[in-house]
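in:
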């Protein structure tokens, strides 16, 4: 059975097509700066996952990323840092672009956004050089799979 949204039109669509809509949407904005956990080489926390969830992650850049040291960025988990998005040169991620692959674009085919089954925290990993400026909004559409499934 589909879990219904609080949007009547979406509920009719879900019932008519038999599809299930993501139960939740969590947004995390990351403003990169020359600070630990916020732009220096290493992990940047995106989402804390408990239990098991199904999710789609849609990163949208609102301020150009800046790196004088050739900074790179990947999206994944601690176990597999690039499971969601492979290494991308940070300065290639510009305002108004979706970062769904290592070739960010202003328009994307929504059918190419992958759904993932996840049971680990989501992180971005800054590599090579510090990212000194820029902002990415991470929209995480998710639904629990296990009884304790949650994204925060």
């Amino acid at each position: 059975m589909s879990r219904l949204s609080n949007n009547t039109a979406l509920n009719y669509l879900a019932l008519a097509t038999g599809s299930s809509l993501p139960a939740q949407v969590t947004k995390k904005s990351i403003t990169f700066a020359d600070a630990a956990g916020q732009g220096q080489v290493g992990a940047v926390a995106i989402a804390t996952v408990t239990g098991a969830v199904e999710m789609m992650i849609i990163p949208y850049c609102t301020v150009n990323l800046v790196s004088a040291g050739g900074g790179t960025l990947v999206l994944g988990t601690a176990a597999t840092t690039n499971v969601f998005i492979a290494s991308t040169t940070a300065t290639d991620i510009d305002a108004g672009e979706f970062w769904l692959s290592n070739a960010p674009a202003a328009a994307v085919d929504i059918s190419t956004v992958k759904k993932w089954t996840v049971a680990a925290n989501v992180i971005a990993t800054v590599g090579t050089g510090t990212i000194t400026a820029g902002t990415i909004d991470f929209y995480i559409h998710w639904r629990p799979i296990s009884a304790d499934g949650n994204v925060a």
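note: The CA atoms of residues 71 and 129 lie 4 Å apart.
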